[in-house]
Amino acid sequence: MCGIVGLHLRDPELYPRLGPLLNGMLSQVVERGPDSAGVAVYGDRRRCPEGYAAVSVLDAPDDLDVALPDVLVTSAGDTTVLAAHVAPDVLLDAIRAAAPDAVIVGTGTELTVYKGTGHPCALAETYDLANAQGWQGLAHTRMATESAVIAAGCHPFSVGLDQCLVHNGSFANHATIRRELQAEGVRFDSDNDSEVGARYVAARLAEGEDLEKALRGLCERFDGFYTLLVTNGNGFAVVRDAIACKPAIIAETDAWVAMASEFRALADLPGIDAARIYEPEPEKVYAWER
Q: How many domains, the chain?
């Protein structure tokens, strides 16, 4: 059992309120995942300035020195975020050269990722989530079932440019698919079954598929029980398993689209009384773009 919340803002006037809204949503799913928490924020230009790339890292050494000019470095618990006015691959290569043992947990030009172990509300404060801004965000609270309670096993799993995946449930055949992906040269950072789903989706997106098609492929290939929320630099998508075993609620207004594991996480969103509220159908992909 884990908790998922996601918020995609359609109204730019709400962008300054992304953090407070997402923070309130996360606080309502703590009981579903008290082990750890992770968040992803899209479009916060104080964390990743316009024209910059940002890379989120676990296990960064205290003396991390990246051979690039004017690198912005901020730390939040287990996560260190580095931003620089270069292409994402240039920043990523420089970080790997400076800290080869560090675990990369997010890369993009819109995205900053934070994750770690501990109480979700305390972690949200560490991440300064209440002061985040932007056009999209997600959060996950974890109750571990498939791998150890460590920062690398926390969600979201961000393994492609501006991409994230969070998962409530478990994949029954993840070991088989992991071996297939490893045979194709894919490297993994954890034993978590959810990372296998993230790597699979990232591979499909890299081949040119959109989120909807990639998630339809996941439904065909993966066995198990799951609700997934997947985000990228254009929007987000939600899908559930064939029997819709894991809970999910979607709400939509002209100003925003939101998804959560429980309705109470949506109850305080502005305009919720006029929202269209529904439960996503089994194996139907729901997708929204900017």
A: 1
Which residues are marked as active site? 2
Task: Give a yes or no: residue 66 inside a domain.
Answer: no
265 has pLDDT over 70: yes
- As a whole number of angstroms, the distance between CA 28 and CA 239 comes to 21
Determine contact, residues 94/51, Cβ cutoff 8 Å.
no
Q: Is the pTM of this model over 0.70?
A: yes
| Residues of the domain holding 212 | 3-46+113-289
In which element (H, E) is residue 287 found?
A: strand 286-289
What CATH number corresponds to the domain at position 153?
A: 3.60.20.10
Per-residue pLDDT band at 145 (split at 50, 70, 90): low
Which residue in 57, 112, 106, 108 sits closest to 79, CA to CA? 57
Contact 290, 234 (CB under 8 A): yes
- CA dist 60 → 80, 103, 128 (Å): 7, 8, 19
**What span, in angstroms and rounded, lies between the C-alpha atoms of 228 and 211?**
12
258 vs 245: CA distance, rounded Å: 20
State the pLDDT at residue 218: 97
- CB neighbours of residue 162 within 10 Å: 19
